[in-house]
Amino acid sequence: MIAEEIIIKPIVTEKSSDGLQEGKYTFKVNKKATKVEIAKAVEKLFGVKVLNVNTMTVKGKEKRVGAHIGMTSDWKKAIVTIDTNPEEQSYLGKGGKEVKVSKKYKDSIDEFMGA
């Protein structure tokens, strides 16, 4: 699956808005997508570093139209935690010299609330 098929749409509710300060974003995702695929799709689409992915299957509700009773379809929800403090990392290179690498990740998803 490609990234655009995995992430269907963001979920904007009061509870999901409370998690934005902690770097937690909520998405409706494809039912067949795994946590690893969801993490890679979010990193590719939004340019952020994903730390954690929690998923859950939301059961459909019973709906009634006139005399007919039916069910809405089940769907999958993913709560993605991103790195909100990307800082420089350093390691020892050739000859024992310290090399610094700056992370090129964003610290928030700007497109989430339609900005």
CATH architecture: 2-Layer Sandwich
Numbering strands along the chain, what is their spatial order in the largest sheet? 1-2-6-3
Major β-sheet profile: 4 strands, antiparallel
Summarize the helix and strand pattern as letters. HEHEHEEEEEE
CATH topology assignment: Alpha-Beta Plaits
Structural class: alpha+beta
Radius of gyration equals 19 Å
Shape: elongated
Number of helices: 3
Helix content: 10-25%
- Number of self-contained structural domains: 1
Quaternary structure classification: single chain
Low-confidence stretches: none
Distance between the termini: 27 Å
The total beta strand count reads: 8
Question: CATH homologous superfamily, by name?
Answer: RRM (RNA recognition motif) domain
Write down the overall mean pLDDT.
87
CATH class: Alpha Beta
Label this structure with key terms.
Alpha-Beta Plaits, two-stranded antiparallel sheet, 115 residues, 4-stranded antiparallel sheet, alpha+beta
Question: Could you walk me through the main structural features you see in this protein, from its secondary elements to its overall organization?
Answer:
It is a single chain. Helix content is 18%, strand content 37%. The chain has 115 residues and is of the alpha+beta class. The protein has one domain: Alpha-Beta Plaits. It has a four-stranded antiparallel sheet. Strand 4 and strand 5 form a beta hairpin. The radius of gyration is 19 Å and the shape is elongated.
